[in-house]
Design brief:
- By secondary structure, this protein is mainly beta.
- Helix content is about 0%, strand content about 50%.
- A hairpin with a 5-residue loop joins strand 18 and strand 19.
- It is globular, with a radius of gyration of 22 Å.
- The two termini are about 40 Å apart.
- About 35% of the residues are buried.
């Protein structure tokens, strides 16, 4: 495969220090952090789950607190992350699946819908006894999909409209681990001790394709936003090969990379939009270099000191480096080199244990050890 390195500089918006924040909000509940797991961002709101299971919803433009909700009240399921049990819709409504014990001691699953102001819109209860896996996801048409594992490779699912109208029920002789990811529902069947069958369905529950996975292929990473199936294989000596195949199993590309410390998890962005980052497969190496592999398998590398990174639906990526943040514009083709858009000197935060979340379009949220959320717009001139 071809590879090209990017080491030059272009005209960028350079900040010698952090600009004045658009707003600041202090979380009163002790030590907190921001990450792509406990934050969701819509067109109007910033949703944040605290470590003590409080969900804060802010007007993302002004920082005004719209609501604070104890979303696990009365539940024996405690969590502080979005994803499996909590989903945010584009209009800011939140759907949370928890388990509760009624007065008779029976545990039931409960789906609760909240609006951004914290008002409970509706609730649904489920009688199924869950074996271990349950969750809620938002389908591409905006409707809700609830899945409840009742036995090994046995799942019951329900579909509801955003208003809580019942749309249908299905029983699956398969496992469902994540609900809808990148537009499709994946079900899994074990076919032998060393193989599995993945079947994919659209939001109308119509089968789209199947893939028979042999464990000799390595690890199956999932169906990506690029419409390809992704795999990885450990070759020892800190070398991992990443590969992508069509839904019919034809290899599109394979790339061996050494000393990889973090890479794309194939999941939807924390920014709640119809579009997701789909310009390529991304990751960072242990030396801090960032890489992106385009859909044809051509890799670009940015020389950096990145400790972590986040992608955004607009095709940009934020690298959190040593005392610096860098934001690049990527392209779906490696023929177009990555373009440096913004750099910010963050050395003033060195002693404050900062955590970062990137919305895209040059918008960054920062939390420091004084438990303040700060919003910065890097499109403003330094």
């Amino acid at each position: 495969m071809l590879s090209s390195a990017f080491t030059g500089t272009v005209s960028a918006n350079n900040f010698q220090s952090l600009p004045k924040p658009d707003w600041t909000f202090s979380i009163p509940d002790g030590h907190e952090y921001l990450s792509d797991s406990n934050v969701r961002i819509t067109n109007q709101t910033l949703n944040f789950m605290s470590m003590d299971n409080q969900m804060y919803i802010f007007d993302k433009k002004t920082g005004k607190q719209l609501s604070k909700t104890d979303y696990t009240a009365g539940s024996n399921l405690i969590f502080s992350f979005f994803g499996t049990y909590a989903q945010v819709a584009q209009n800011g409504n939140v759907y949370i699946l928890t388990s509760i014990k009624n007065s008779s001691g029976v545990i039931k699953q409960r789906l609760t819908a909240y609006n951004p102001n914290g008002k409970v819109l509706w609730m649904k209860y489920f009688d199924e006894k869950v074996r271990s896996i349950s969750g809620v996801s938002i389908m591409p048409d905006g409707n809700l999909f609830v899945y409840l594992e009742t036995a090994s490779e046995r799942v019951t699912s329900y579909r509801y409209s955003p208003e809580g109208k019942f749309l249908g029920k299905n029983n699956w002789n398969a496992s469902i681990l994540y609900g809808f990811v990148n537009g499709l529902l994946e079900t899994i069947n074990s076919t032998s001790k060393t193989s599995s069958r993945m079947t994919y369905f659209d939001f109308k529950m119509k089968q789209q394709f199947q893939y028979h996975f042999d464990f000799k292929e390595g690890i199956f990473s999932g169906f990506g936003p690029d419409g390809l199936l992704h795999f990885q294989k450990n070759h020892g000596n800190n070398v991992i090969s990443f590969s992508a195949k069509t839904t019919k199993g034809k290899e599109v590309w394979t790339k061996k990379i050494s000393n990889v410390s973090y890479y794309d998890d194939m999941e939807t962005s924390m920014t709640v939009k119809r579009n997701v980052f789909s310009n390529g497969f991304t990751g960072i190496q242990s030396n801090g270099n960032f890489f992106i592999i385009d859909p044809k398998g051509i890799m670009q590398t940015v020389t950096a000191s990145a400790k972590m990174y986040q992608t955004a639906p607009d095709g940009t990526v934020m690298l959190v480096e040593n005392s610096k943040i860098s934001i690049y514009q990527t392209s779906a083709s490696a023929k177009t080199k990555l373009k440096l858009l913004h750099t910010v000197n963050t050395s003033e935060l060195k002693e404050s244990d900062p955590t970062f979340v990137y919305e895209g379009e040059g918008i960054i949220y920062v939390m420091t050890d004084n438990v303040q959320i700060n919003r910065f717009d890097l499109n403003k001139q330094p």
